[in-house]
Amino acid sequence: MKLSSFAGRVFGSVLYVASTALAQDFATHGMYTEPNTRITFYTSYQQDGPITGGGEFSMTSVGGFTFGMALPPSAATTDYYDYIGLVIGSTPNKKGWTGVLHGDQGAGMPNHLMILAWPTGNGNEIATSFRYSPCFCAKTNCTNSSYQLPVIYQGSAKLTKIYTNVNDTHWTMVYKCSRCLIFDDPSQSEFNASTSAGQFGAGWAQSVTSPVNPPDPNSDFSQHDNGQGSYRIIVSSATQESYSKWESMTATAAPPSSTTTPPTTTTLPVSGVPVPTQTSYDYVVIGGGAAGIPIADKLSESGKSVLLIEKGVASSARWGGTYRPESGWLDGHNLTWFDIPGECNRIWNGGSAGVACTDTDQMAGCVLGGGAAVNAGLWWKANPSDWDYNFPAGWKARDMQGATDRVFSRIPGTDHPSLDGKLYVQSGFDTLRTGLEKAKWKSVTANNVPGEKNRTYAHTPYMSANGERGGPMATYLVTASKRKNFQLWLNTSVERINRVGGHAVNLDVSPTINGGRVGTVKLTPVTGRVILAAGAFGTPKLLFRSGIGPKDMLDVVASSSDSKVMINSASWINLPVGQGLNDHLNTDTVISHPNVSYYDWVEAWNTPIEQDKVNYLTKRIGPLTQAAPNIGPMMWEEIKGPDGIVRQFQWTSRVEGSMGEPNGNTMTLSLYLGRGSVSRGRTSINKGLNMLVSTIPYGDPNDLAAAAAAIDSMVKTLNTIPNITWVHPTANLTGAEYLKTLPLDYANVGSRRSNHWMGTAKLGTDSGLKGGTSVVDTNTKVYGTDNIFVVDASIWPGMPSTNPSGLIVVAAEHAAELIQRLPLNTALPKGAKCGGADYGGSQVCRDPFVCKVVSKSLSTCA
Ligand SMILES: Cc1cc2nc3c(=O)[nH]c(=O)nc-3n(C[C@H](O)[C@H](O)[C@H](O)COP(=O)(O)OP(=O)(O)OC[C@H]3O[C@@H](n4cnc5c(N)ncnc54)[C@H](O)[C@@H]3O)c2cc1C
């Protein structure tokens, strides 16, 4: 579900840094003497690493970011406004800008001075510009302000460069900043960071896109997409006896041969617990997410040994999770933010570090529970058409009925999650309902009538139980963990599946943090099986690293750090992995209405409203039992595109501003294009072994024409509500005209995605081995293999009507039956057929024989 309140592409930039009472500190600190100036700085270093999500909220940054500060000793006792600064910015593609934000107690974007800086392209020259984002609200009180486009700062700050240097990937600037710790733009209220208070906040953001006109310091620039964050400056560490000497330094020319590398922090090696060498497993399930947990549980029911390997940390408190608010209001309770529905938006508001996957450019949960730990918990029984339209025989709605019943008997879900049976914070729902009623849309209880998805609306059902998140972690994992034949390893990443021909024999694992496992995990000889449930990006990544995928991707892996361990190219299995990438195309629209009122979910992280907190902790009632931010009504409509294909649309409403509109009376209505969409994209792996969306899966003209009609229909439907204002689209725009204003390119993927990625290892009967589009057969077995299966979002041939996690759990229940029904592999005698076109049986030969290729259509044990 897409719940980020920030538009992905804003010209003039939105340097977003969490505004908190005291800025949170996500940096690594140290001391660094810059070699050209010999000035010693107290440094704040942000990790060099692949960005998460679209990069706008990533806590890591490609290339890293370093800020250094030096202050005079007197700053510790008397507030001081000047400092000597160091910035080492990253330009990984020789492009980009870096922003330094001067905070006070907090480091929020509004009314704080920023330095934006970037290489101009002319030698070692760096352009710098003072900006600030004006307070949207009363001058003196910015706590409720929203994020405004930064403008040129007119205060008294002055920057003098002492040293600059630019190389291919980084640039360095040492500078004196006069009157930069006081904010005195004449149009705003003056204040200063108090150095005498001992510490103050600061922030950063970076982009890999250069400003529009790099030589011009006043140039426009686009939103940060290479990370952002906040940190604290400890004054006693930044003060230096030599400050006055350094302060008088003038510009230093860069020595011609000088290359600058950022000060690196020593990364301690992660220590792992060795994998037991004597044990082998009947089933190894990779990935403890929405699909991995239920399938591991179901497979373990038979008594076979099952190992579930999850690379992330524990999330829910039930499993040892520890992520709680800094203010301590959850301390002593068996709860983390993952357990409390009202805290689900934490993933978008400063909670992604250590939680979001760092090896993909999109948002995904890499903790126990996967997406089902970090999502909003919307829980849908599939519209029967979702199976009937998208899936082949064996996966039609009637085939899925048993699995659906089993899942919903364990996780029924509820649209009244508060244990007193009441619904809270319903101003948004009640406002829109009047228009829907007038237009004769039908009110339904969605999971009682899953097929009624045309001009219907509903309260939102969640997977929660007992006022907590619930879902697979609270059900399937509980039963699995009681079985002696089931094991769960956390903090352990599967690096690759090692195979002989199409038969997996073992898996290499490594720890992601101390205490994870290291070594090689054995499958039971001959009969062992491996199930990939690592998600729509994690699964294709593992397949690529295991030599399964299109040649261009396997070539990338072969040229990476995997080169020495990758399976020989003679054993590569050529399948269209990654090529059916799909997601609900999202189009945000915004309305405002005087009756709509905002609930501050972001504030509820550290300081929830006292009564709501007490009600939640003591009775599991109130707003915190519902997912943030006041989701509902959910609305559906079917619309036929010009190509005659009926498309399913879902509108997800929430009480929150977006597209630059402030919270308050605003609602965002997000339009998802579901079943019937024909656009497809691609995910690729790069040499750093990170996954990216290389072709966005949106933009087919028939898809867009249907989306335009859906917007027109909703505008008309809601226009009957007295006092409603359509903010986006504005009254003069048709749906088609509005869509033209919203770019459909990679830079804007953050606002067009729904985080419902699917389809990267498609299930179907048209084998990719023979030029078809499918990676797994209807038993979820990877074509060309005899014991490698995929069961997760990757197998989806087309988008469903709704958010997908409920359907993914149903698919896991169904797949568990299919897989267990398949005869186990047997070791074949000499001369037996063990491979070739259309062969789907065992590829294992009895010792000492091996499966040898005779011709394209035949392999035999010899
Ligand atoms: C922010 C957000 C909000 C969402 N909101 C909703 C919603 O409200 N309702 C809904 O239905 N859907 C929602 N979704 C989508 C839904 O959560 C996902 O579609 C679903 O979780 C995908 O299930 P999966 O099993 O395919 O993968 P995941 O649930 O992502 O699980 C994959 C797991 O594999 C692990 N893994 C990956 N690689 C490896 C490896 N090499 N070794 C070991 N472990 C590995 C990961 O850490 C992860 O735990 C949301 C998604 C996001 C990101």
TrEMBL record:
Query: By its UniProt entry, which PANTHER family does this protein fall under?
Result: CELLOBIOSE DEHYDROGENASE (AFU_ORTHOLOGUE AFUA_2G17620), DEHYDROGENASE, PUTATIVE-RELATED
Q: What protein name does the entry list? A: Glucose-methanol-choline oxidoreductase N-terminal domain-containing protein
Q: What GO terms describe the biological role, i.e. biological process, of this protein?
A: carbohydrate metabolic process
Give the signal sequence positions. Answer: 1-23
Low complexity: compositionally biased ranges: 250-272
What's a GO cellular component annotated to this UniProt protein? extracellular region
Q: Which GO terms describe its molecular function?
A: cellulose binding; flavin adenine dinucleotide binding; oxidoreductase activity, acting on CH-OH group of donors
Q: Which PROSITE patterns match?
A: GMC_OXRED_2 (PS00624)
Q: Does the keyword Zinc apply?
A: no
Please report which protein family the annotation says this sequence is part of. Belongs to the GMC oxidoreductase family.
Which keywords describe this protein according to UniProt?
Signal
